[in-house]
Amino acid sequence: AVVSTQSTGNELASRAREDPNVVIAKMDATSNSVPRPFESRGFPTIYFVPKGNSVRPIKFEGSRTIEGLTEFMQSNTKEELVFVEPEEKYLKKKEEGEEEQDTGTCSGAPVDAGAGDGQCSAGKQEL
Fold first, then answer.
1. For the chain, first and last CA: distance in Å?
2. Which of 41, 46, 38, 76 is nearest to 62 (CA)?
3. How far apart are CA 73 and CA 49, in angstroms?
4. What average pLDDT is seen over the chain?
5. Of the candidates 23, 8, 11, 21, which has an alpha carbon nearest to the alpha carbon of residue 124?
6. Which residues lie below 8 Å from residue 47, measured CB to CB, with a gap of 6+?
7. Quick one: CA dihedral 13, 15, 17, 23, positive or negative?
8. Cα separation, 93 vs 55, whole angstroms
9. pLDDT in tens, 60-109
10. Cβ distance 123 to 36 under 8 Å?
11. Side-chain half-sphere of 28: how many Cα atoms within 13 Å?
């Protein structure tokens, strides 16, 4: 089954809700200017910005699964990130054979180019 990037982003935000140093943000690049140094050439474009003043965003190009995203984030930071079990509403199982399609916009990206106008920062809440 195809899993929507938005549902993966919501689950990631839920899993990161207890780590005060993790912010999961999304931005619709079709409605907002993409700030530098971020680039959006496809949807969704996912970035990780490690803690620190001089750190540049790292473009994510791996498996768009919870495991792929959390491993990518942890491997690109010196901090020990805290991920917990997601809230029950993110554990809904899809009916057999049902596929959830991505909407084709970056509004569902877990860690989009998330700075500047139009930023939707969910923090530890639902995206």
1. 22
2. 46
3. 9
4. 74
5. 23
6. 38, 57, 58, 59, 60, 111, 112, 113, 114
7. negative
8. 38
9. 999 999 999 999 999 999 989 999 999 999 876 544 444 444 333 333 33
10. no
11. 8
User: What token pair was written down for 53?
Assistant: 């003043």
Residue type, 25: A
For residues 28-45, one letter each, b for 16 or more C-beta atoms within 10 angstroms of the residue's C-beta and e for the rest, the string is bbeebebeeebebeebbb
Please give the model's pTM, rounded to 2 decimal places: 0.66
Which single residue is written with the structure tokens 């500047």?
Answer: 116
Q: How far apart are alpha carbons 119 and 84 in whole angstroms? A: 25
